[in-house]
Design goal:
The structure is a homodimer of 294-residue chains.
Chain A (H helix, E strand, L loop, with lengths): L23 H6 L6 E3 L5 E6 L4 E6 L5 H12 L7 E5 L4 E5 L21 E2 L6 E2 L9 E5 L2 E5 L4 E4 L5 E4 L12 E5 L13 E7 L2 H4 L18 E8 L11 E4 L4 H11 L22 E3 L4
Antiparallel strand pairs in A: 1-15, 2-3, 2-14, 3-13, 4-5, 4-14, 5-12, 6-10, 7-8, 8-9, 9-10, 11-12, 11-13, 15-16
């Protein structure tokens, strides 16, 4: 069987051996402990699917504080009891939750959250991607998140593979957060600034992306059937310590990330013939790992 | 259940009703018969999976003529007998075929094809996308294909969702075409100019993208197991007329495509609040449909 990506070669360690060209993974593996940031447990949403597989989502309270507060309240109040993945549309989204019209809102949750689609760019840490973007004035990274800056001074998170957003009806409805989706195909960037992004899947996206596609329009499942039942959704901070996951992301302001970015934009390891000299924002996923030693 | 995409609204047909904003699908549905081009049957590769589902691939002889000629010979000679999908890597590729090292090359096939990764841009029809691209000087469409133009006068097909390429070992190997992959995640554009693109899946990509991911490194299946057996791979031109599929693509030089492109770049139908004002090449999939009346 042939490998598409670079194969680790055992180079003879002689004086004549050329230096090995680094892969993005090499750069990530070489990052020191101090370049990693632990994600707070209250920002980790743990969704357990029928059969026990977990999907772990990092929440983004700095971008959608009201929606994220709702999601935390829903998790605490067991709002999602009986929830399911009920839509899987190929090259677009997997969507899950509970029918908001049929479930009473949890105490303290906001019924009509504001349109948290953008926030001011001012005050946002920003590491530029350094490649042009079709959707924004500039794109890059802010505290571990892919972000876009617009000409009017606003900023947004961007839809990349695994991005989690809030299902809604037609504008100006914004959704409560009771129905969520994850992008499972090519980044649907046209949704940026049009929907509340509340986080991203950092572990277990394949539990959603490999589900059978729904047979109805837009990938919905037939009434009365679902792609997968959800047996629990909880914040890591509310879980017993022994079951609580912990993850870290590579600090996007660190020299290690800068090196990773440079290599992603200029792949020249043994598999490659031509280095691209640039990259699409969503082709530079922010490295995430389980916290070592836990 | 809430819908992410625009919902068809029944607007009251009164004098006061505002004009309905068009969706990309509206533009495609409005294209006249003359804007559609029928794909030649010798350019359609029909892969049948265990269970009977079909994956249909449009071949690209104008970009990788030697590899495509090999693929046609393999199909005619039943080279792929016993083939399987043996690699499914999340957000990257599904890969299939037969171990080239263990199967004698079909008569007339080329053992070491040239690096058909680029071709001269000169002579290529070209409709520009009109948005910046991180990987190329300019990107757009040529006779139904997404293409990139580079500063040195070369052009390539681009890796988008569903793009089919030739698995290979390390450069300068190019692969024979006996092992193929399809992109099933965010477009891996860094592979452009580094691998032979031979076509794209135009029907049935979900038969590959929803397969369980392989458990081994890079999504490979464990030795002795496969994601899915392949029961047949044939050119449509070699199939009995009654079983032969037929597809058309929207002429990318037509006014209908120009309108579709403009709407994709400026979604302003009822779901949207802000029109993007641009699009990523791979977010403008070339419309394809079964040939009407067949």
């Amino acid at each position: 069987m042939r490998n598409l990506a670079a194969v680790a070669l055992l180079l003879a360690l002689t004086a004549a051996a050329p230096p090995k060209k680094l892969t993005p993974t090499d750069a990530v593996n070489a990052a020191p402990a101090g370049a990693w940031r632990t994600i707070p447990a209250e920002d980790l949403l743990v969704m357990t699917l029928d059969g026990g597989a977990r999907v772990i989502i990092q929440l983004a309270p700095a971008f959608a504080p009201v929606h994220v507060a709702n999601i935390r309240k829903f998790a605490a109040a067991n709002y999602w009891q009986g929830a399911a993945v009920y839509r899987v549309q190929d090259n677009y989204v997997a969507q899950w939750g509970i029918n908001e019209a049929k479930r009473a809102l949890s105490a303290g949750a906001v019924a009509k959250p504001p349109a948290e689609y953008v926030r001011p760019a001012r005050g946002l840490a920003f590491t530029p991607l350094g490649s042009p973007d079709p959707y924004a004035k500039s794109v890059g990274f802010s505290r571990g998140w892919p972000v876009a800056l617009y000409r009017n001074g606003s900023a947004s998170l961007t839809h990349c593979y695994g991005t989690v957003g809030v299902g809604r009806d037609l504008h100006p409805d914004t959704g409560t957060g009771g129905e969520l989706y994850a992008a499972i195909g090519h980044a649907p960037r046209q949704l940026d600034r049009n929907i509340a992004i509340v986080g991203r899947v950092i572990s277990g996206i394949e539990q959603l992306s490999a589900l059978p596609r729904g047979s109805e329009a837009m990938g919905f499942y037939k009434e009365g059937s679902v792609a997968k039942a959800i047996t629990g959704i909880a914040l890591a901070s509310a879980m017993p310590a022994a079951q609580r996951p912990s993850f870290q992301y590579l600090d996007t302001a660190s020299p290690s990330f800068a090196r990773y970015l440079r290599i992603r934009k200029n792949r020249d390891d043994d598999f490659y013939r031509v280095a691209a000299g640039g990259a699409d924002l969503c082709n530079v996923p922010v490295p995430v790992r389980p916290t070592p030693g836990r």
